[in-house]
Amino acid sequence: MSEVRRTIEAVWSMEAPKLIAALTRLTRDVGIAEDLAQDALVAALEKWPQTGLPDNPGAWLMTTARRRGIDLIRRSRLRERKYEQLAGHTPLYAEDEPDLGEGVGDDLLRLIFLTCHPVLAQESRVALTLRLLCGLTTEQIARSYLAAEPAIAQRIVRAKRTLAAKQVAFELPEGRQLQERLSAVLEALYLMFNEGYAATSGDDLLRPLLCREALRLSRVLAELMPGEPEVHGLAALLELQSSRLRQRVAPDGRLVRLRDQNRARWDRLHMRRGLAALERGRSLGRRYGPYLLQAAIAACHAEAPSEAETDWVRISALYEALMQGQPSPVVELNRAVAVAMAFGPAIGLAIADELERRGELAGYHLLPSVRGELLQRLGRPAEARAEFERAAGLARNARERELLLEQAAACEAI
Amino acid sequence: MKFMMIVKGTTDSEAGVLPAPELIEAMQRYNEELARAGVLLAADGLQASANGIRISYPEPGGKPKVVDGPFTETKEIIAGYTLIEVKSREEAIQWAMRMPDPHGGGQGQIELRQVFEPEELTPDAEWRQRENELRRQVESQRRG
After folding, report:
1. Residue A170 in domain
2. Residue-averaged pLDDT of chain A
3. CATH number at residue A50
4. Got the DSSP string for A345-365?
5. pLDDT confidence of A49, banded at 50, 70, 90?
6. CB-CB contact of A12 with A55 (8 Å)
7. Is residue A254 part of a domain?
8. Chain B closest-CA separation from residue A363 CA (Å)
9. Minimal C-alpha gap between A337 and chain B (Å)
10. DSSP string of B72-101, one letter each residue
């Protein structure tokens, strides 16, 4: 690819979310908006190599795309008026042609709420967000999900169709609806990050692209909604997790557990940003939601010089609070680990055993993995080994499986 | 990838003259734009070099030489920096191009530098290299 082309594509991907957001407001159709934004890219690729980059490339792209958008509206209005005369329909497009310089932030926010709308399936929300808010190509998204490109393309097309069919409005939800919709947005970003952080399948543990984009969007969201504590909670959580990203995987590609990580190499900048975001969320003075709680847990790890010097009592209490607000067997399992560290392996094992008995985590490799560790600490190596082997059999990620088999093998040594 | 946009010193910044309100406002708007794009990591302005010291090691293995500011060569002085995290070098260049002229009187200069990623610097890279070396040796022995 030529340098000019790379530059033009870089400019476009910086502007694309803003373009798509403004054009969605204009045309009330995110699919059309994306097409118009793409048209503007094509126009730039034709024009800029001759003329050089305009002084304000963002404005150029916006004007070009908008002009085409307005043409499109005029044409369909003409058609529509005929339909309206026949059927008396309400106009399809908004009457106002808003000034696109103003309210860019609000439009971006509307776009995030649209791509993370609950009418869409969870995986479609993430794919559509990556496509429209991160300017990623379908190929890039497919690669980071180890999925076939046509499958991702299909998913995105279907998502756009669903939004159109359900006539999802391009607007900011209000009141109680806002909180519900906001948690759908936060969840989508959280899942995007997690898929990159702990890839559920395949050979590699990390998909840096997904982590990076989820983190970036969480920062954007924190700028756009500074009054929402949970937004800062998510940003804090992702910054803190990112600070450990590089130490999570050994040079030979193996998973490194938190306790074995070299804490001196955790990224100080991410850590500091994470702690600052947590403080911003806290200072709003509302009750901790699940993301602030998880960020507070991550902060305990960030501030501890070693596993032994970690405030496990506080972490246990934070997991307890998390369980109260959002009961889930995975949280309960984490609580078992923290309680074991704070109050001894026997108490932790009792919690894990109860989870085992309830069968809610059947098939989840981390339950036998945790039980294995606790059994080993209790001096029951034979049972521990069986649990690690069971966990290895359940793990879908090759690297995790490797680590679990090593742990199983190490049990004999004691 | 991370980049640092380094704003070089000017006679004004060295004299402790604060930038004009319009420039401060333009810089704030720019920083907001960076933050809203989710690429801003850190941004700070530095005090004049009159308040700084310079530590140099003119003799290999010798004692450091400490000199108090101000330092004379204005263009070599850093007046501020902005750290960003972006997708590509091209994107970094575009952001740097959008930064307002930091002086407005002909002395404005911004330097764009890429930040090393930890794996390019830490012993891990060495370790990996040693590991690869060892692997090559083992393989060649096996073949031989």
Report:
1. no
2. 88
3. 1.10.1740
4. HHHHHHHHHHHHHHTTTTT-T
5. very high
6. no
7. no
8. 35
9. 30
10. S-GGGSEEEEEEEE-S-HHHHHHHHHHSPP
The helix (run of H) or strand (run of E) holding residue B67 is strand B65-68
In this prediction, residue B134 carries a pLDDT of 61
Question: Residues of A numbered 105-144 whose beta carbons fall under 8 angstroms of chain B's beta carbons: which are they?
Answer: 105, 108
Residue A332 phi/psi, 5° resolution?
Answer: -60, -40
CATH number for the domain that contains residue A356: 1.25.40.10
Residue ranges of the domains in chain B? 2-117
Cβ–Cβ below 8 Å for B41 and A224: no
Count how many domains chain A has.
Answer: 2
A346: domain range? 327-414
Identity at A3, one-letter amino acid code: E
Query: Domain B2-117 has what CATH class?
Result: alpha beta
The full length of chain A comes to 414
Domain boundary among A87, A106, A135: A87
- Determine whether the interchain pair A10/B38 forms a contact, defined as Cβ–Cβ distance below 8 Å: no
In whole angstroms, give the CA distance from residue A249 to residue A246. Answer: 6
Between B119 and B27, the higher pLDDT residue: B27
User: Out of B35, B42, B87, whose CB is closest to A13?
Assistant: B87
| Cβ contact, residue pair A220, B85, below 8 Å | no
Q: Which residue of B has its CA nearest to A239?
A: B41
Helices then strands, counting H and E runs in chain B, come out as 5, 6
ipTM of the complex as predicted: 0.82
Mark which of A43, A72, A87 sits at the end of a domain.
A87
